[in-house]
Amino acid sequence: MSSQEKIPEENLPAEQEAAHGAVEVADDPFADPGLPAHRPRIQDIDEQAAKRSERTVAFLFVLSMLATVGFIASYVIFPVDKIVFIWPFGHVSALNFSLGLTLGVALFAIGAGAVHWARTLMSDVEVADDRHAIEAEPEVKAKVLADFAAGAEESAFGRRKLIRNTLFGALALVPLSGVMLLRDLGPLPEKKLRQTLWSKGKQLINMNTMEPLRPEDVAVGSLTFAMPEGLTEDAHDFQTQIAKAALMIIRIQPENIKDKREREWAHEGIVAFSKICTHVGCPISLYEQQTHHVLCPCHQSTFDLSDGARVIFGPAGHSLPQLRIGVNSEGNLEALGDFEEPVGPAFWERG
Fold first, then answer.
1. Per-residue pLDDT averaged across 196-223, rounded?
2. pTM to 2 decimals?
């Protein structure tokens, strides 16, 4: 627009205001509309409805208690390896499914009961409070305590004894689910850490040929690994048992055996020691013929097999246990009993 052009007078703001009247502007364009009028619930005016809500809440808390009992019972009823078909999930572990279902119901019922209690029986009157400073003044503290007392009174916690008692019951039983989960740490060891499959008369089986070992099969300076007769690699507990029963079979000239008990427990210089390191349980397999030392590959613990398998280097705490052996009527090597001390690393209850 050029500077010579003029705006029509009727389009000027002053002229429009004169023609149409002044526009009034509100002092506060965002006025507080206030709280809506309170509408009482049916439970507020009908005690029978309130009783029904109370029974519903109590039912949910009792359901939580029963589900917690079912969670604990599942550990007793279902074995760990039981598989069942449940539509639409397919084949699932019966124990895992029952634990998840019962624990989920126990926690959901407590939450649903608390929500239904708050929505139907606790006071739902909306209260507006002005903003205040962050620090709490004595008057504020007194008001908080008064509000808490009023809330407790309005919740009818003291008057609704059925709800209160069932809530206490549900909250008291739910933590037992966590206690039962400790079972997954494994069964109590009892004497399993002190005993192996070796017993008097069990033959030594060569782990390479799976045939009974005979004295002539073990050459001087050789290292052979053996396991108990009757243990097979397809057994469900093979790894558990072999971790305690694995043997190292070494033949040493009898005059080179320094330890008296080792010489007595051997057969013609053939000695049998546990293959499991006494440090952290690694399998030992490195043998030095000239020194009769064996080395654990994990942390370099070294044992002298000519001197009772005592520790001569490394972090292992004690010697390798020796198995007393002999020869049966068939000419095969056999155990004359079990190890006289626990195999592998030390444990807290070891005597």
1. 93
2. 0.51
